[in-house]
Every structure is written in C-alpha cells, then in structure tokens.
Amino acid sequence: MTESVESRLSARNITLPQAAAPAANYVPYVISGSLLYVSGQLPMEAGKVAVTGIVGRDVDVASAQRAAELCAINILAQAKAALDGDLERIARVIKLNGFVASDPSFTDQHLVINGASNLIAELLGESGKHARAAVGMASLPFNAAVEIDAIIEIA
C-alpha cells in the first residue's frame, strides 16, 4: 500500500480524536526500544463510552464490533500522540489483546474483536496484520462492552 495511513483514515471518514488521558494511575503508552505499548482503550466517542453493557445480554455482536472499531481508533490516536503525529512510523502492529464484557453463555468474542482487527488491517495494510487474543470478561471499566490494548513495532 503506497497511500499514507492518514489518507486511508480520511477515505473512511475517520478523524482520530485527541488521545484520551488515563483514568487511573498509569500512562496511556510506553515506548521501550522499538516497541510502543498502548494501554487498554475503551470505545470512547465524543468524550464518553459509546457502547456499554454485557455482550450477549445487553449488546449485540454488531454493536460490539463497532465498539471494537472505536477501541482501534483510540489505539491509533494514542499511537499518533506517542509518535509525534507521524503514524507512518508504525512498522507493524504486533499484537492486539481484546477484552469483551460477556454474558457467561457468549462465545463469539473472536467475532467482536474482528471489528478492531479488520479496521487495523484495512488502515495499515500488511503492517496491520497482527497476533491477537479475544477474551471474555465479567465486566470492564465504566461498563464498557470492549477494551483493547496493543503492542506496536515502530521505526
């Protein structure tokens, strides 16, 4: 892919938000050597958690996938802040860890986290293909339906 990440964001009508400040005693990202670790991101939109509740009970798969997309957008916002605005420094998304607030009978966490994986791969091409975990949780902070963190190799 020869297009820039910013042009692919624009083509999808995605504007990265201002990177959110942490909600507790941690930092939003850490750079160690050539790795960028992005703390867990919630499905924030317009300054609030956009998708809340338990997937498989209060939230359907399509809405949860949208929540995962919002998490991915917020991961990219944190990466942009960490990389002084230059998303082209992303060499590879190494791993996404996806956490889904799930009803005990819900077993499609992998489909939910596809919302983030598909978007990251679309925006970053080959560099966006990553390893991943998709895990069910009893609950998440602020009653969010999804939370995702990331490990990214940077140039």
UniProtKB/TrEMBL annotation:
Signal peptide: none annotated. It comes from the Bacteria. Residues 6-146 form the Endoribonuclease L-PSP/chorismate mutase-like domain. Pfam families: YjgF_endoribonc. PANTHER family: ENDORIBONUCLEASE L-PSP_CHORISMATE MUTASE-LIKE DOMAIN-CONTAINING PROTEIN, ENDORIBONUCLEASE-RELATED. This is Endoribonuclease L-PSP/chorismate mutase-like domain-containing protein.
